[in-house]
Request: fold
Amino acid sequence: MLKKTWVRLAVALLLTAVFLYFFFRSVNDWGAVLRSLTQVSLPLFLLAILLTPLHLATRAFRWRYLLIHEKRDVRFRNLFAGNAIGFMVSSLLPGRVGEIVKPLYCARKECVRPGFVLGTVVVERIFDILTMCFLLGAFLLARPLYASKFVLEPETSSRLTQMGILGLAIGAGLLCVILFFYFFREKAVRLAMLFLGPLPKKWGEKASHLLHEFIDGLKFFHSPANLVIYVVLSFVVWLGITFFYWIFFLSYRVSIPFFFLIPYIFLTMIGASIPTPGMIGGFHAFSQLGLTQLFGLDVNLAFTLTVVVHAVQIAMTCLIGYAIVWTEGLSLLQLRKLGETSEP
Reply:
């Protein structure tokens, strides 16, 4: 187990170092970077800071529609806290431990089955991918309407389309897998246990128990009304994130039409999904790529915007998460152990 942890840490740090090397290497005028830091509208910048936790609130509200099949009176505070703590842990520790801490924290606070909540988080991530792929598809299909205002190099347009198709394929594939687990429960469990066969008996039993709870977490597929509401709220989540970036760029006097930000958000989602500590490196590389290739921004300005927007998001998320953790008398080490307890 210890060796496995060190290997994952080494890979994460190597990826981070490679991405950051090319990110910093792209700067050709550090004076321009420093000057652009000060060219900001303070009122709009403060508004962007206040909007940073917006996605925590919208995600919490959306999450409730997955949990009501287990417990109808789930408290919004615990859903918000679970999101904040999860993102904080992922920001500070490698390996996306926060993705496990988030549901287990909520499970303990609300006294619901851990495996059930884990299942809802998997659903969240799949719908995040599908929602952004849908928005990107709508953007690309509507291009003839604004072709003169948003000019893309053929190679850039082709790569963006390919990434969108790949993302849609991944999301659709994962959706098919979880639907198979839900509607063909016994067959899916037997198949999964074949892969888990080499595990010791104790761990195998634990994995089987969690798998059944996980499948129970997919119950919302049997409620068309909740499914529709959840899809709508998924768009609310990502359009809210887009609104945050729109205000942030305006604060630096970079006026990009709201709808045009969709491919940029899609690229940052890809960068953020790379398992580096705090999204460092992956987010930076894809954000700078989007700002320069999609909007033609100067590479030095793109560097500044990327560094600042990432710092704002990480600082605010960690501040909110730490405030919650501090009030509950928890520590980062305890949260990390909470995430590690789910591993067989």
Summary: The two ends are 10 Å apart (CA to CA). DSSP finds 15 helices and no strands in the chain. The chain has a mean pLDDT of 83.
